[in-house]
TrEMBL record:
Source species: Guptibacillus hwajinpoensis
A Pfam family this chain is assigned to: TANGO2
Protein name in UniProt: NRDE family protein
Upper lineage: Bacteria, Bacillati, Bacillota, Bacilli, Bacillales
Recorded superkingdom: Bacteria
InterPro entries for this protein: TANGO2 (IPR008551)
Length: 252
C-alpha cells in the first residue's frame, strides 16, 4: 500500500476514518478483502505471494496498515513486510509490546511504515526512523516516506480530508473515494527526490497511479462511529462496480 490518510478523533460522529490506496505491480497475485476462513476474526486482503497483508482489521477493533519505504536498489530480505500488520492482528500482545518487538527485529525487513493499534489508539513505527510514536488526534498521512512527510499527494490528501470533515456533519463514502481517485501528477518542481528516475517520480506522484505494469489496485475506506459500528469498503482499480462492503459492530 502506498498512500494512507487517517482522521483520528477529528470528526464528531466518526472517531476513526481511514482512506487508502494500495499500489502494486498488476502481476502480483492478490486476494481481495474478506473475513479469512482460517482466521475468521481478521478482515483483510491477502498477498498470495508472501501470504501477508497490507491492511486489515479485526472484529475486536484492531487495525494495522503498512506502506513500503521507497529505497531504489534495495535488495530483498528474507522476511516479508506484509507479515508485520498480520502478526499484530493475530497477536494477544498489547500494541506497545508488539511495537517494541517489531523494533527489536527491524533490521530483518526492508524499509517500512507500520500503523497499528485499536481504532481509538494508534501507533506508528518505521525502521527508517526507529521510534515508536503514538499518533495524536487529527489528520495524518503516509506514503513511501515517513509519517506526514510533505509529499504533494500526502499533503493534498490530508488537506482534502481535513476540509471535508470540518464541513460535513455526516460522511459520504463516495466522496472519500473521489479523493482517492485523483490522477493528476504533481508538477516537476514539487516532486520528491527519492532516487528513482524523473519519469518514475512523475508516474508515482498522483494519489491514484496508473501505468502499464504498476498502479493503484485496491482502494479502502474504513469508518468507525461513536457506537462502534465499523464499515469497511474496498474497490478494485477505482471502480464502484467492483466494490466489496462489510459492516459489523466491534466485539468488545
Amino acid at each position: 500500500m502506498c498512500l494512507i490518510g487517517i482522521a483520528l478523533h477529528a470528526h464528531e460522529k466518526y472517531p476513526f476514518i481511514l482512506i487508502a490506496n494500495r499500489d502494486e505491480f498488476y502481476e502480483r497475485p492478490t486476494e481481495r478483502a474478506q473475513f479469512w476462513q482460517d482466521e475468521p476474526q481478521i478482515l483483510a486482503g491477502r498477498d498470495l505471494k508472501a501470504m501477508g497483508t497490507w491492511l486489515g482489521v479485526t472484529s475486536s477493533g484492531k487495525v494495522a496498515a503498512l506502506t513500503n519505504y521507497r529505497e531504489p536498489g534495495e535488495k530483498p530480505k528474507e522476511r516479508s513486510r506484509g507479515d508485520l500488520p498480520l502478526d499484530y492482528l493475530r497477536t494477544n500482545q498489547s500494541i506497545t509490546t508488539y511495537m517494541e518487538e517489531v523494533d527489536s527485529k527491524s533490521t530483518e525487513y526492508n524499509g517500512f511504515n507500520l500503523i497499528a493499534g485499536h481504532f481509538n489508539e494508534l501507533y506508528y513505527y518505521s525502521n527508517r526512523q526507529n521510534q515508536i510514536i503514538q499518533m495524536q488526534e487529527g489528520i495524518h498521512g503516509v506514503s513511501n516516506h515517513l509519517l506526514n512527510s510533505s509529499w504533494p499527494k500526502v499533503d493534498g490528501l490530508k488537506n482534502e480530508l481535513s476540509n471535508y470533515l470540518s464541513s460535513e456533519p455526516d460522511i459520504r463514502i463516495d466522496h472519500l473515494f473521489e479523493m482517492l481517485n485523483q490522477a493528476e501528477p504533481a508538477p516537476d518542481e514539487a516532486l520528491p527526490h527519492t532516487g528513482v528516475p524523473i519519469e518514475w517520480e512523475r508516474m508515482l506522484s498522483p494519489i491514484f497511479i496508473a501505468s502499464d505494469s504498476y498502479g493503484t489496485r485496491a482502494q479502502t475506506i474504513i469508518t468507525v462511529n461513536n457506537e462502534g459500528h465499523v464499515t469497511f469498503t474496498e474497490r478494485s482499480k477505482g471502480q464502484k462496480t467492483n466494490e466489496k462492503h462489510f459492516a459489523f459492530i466491534i466485539n468488545r
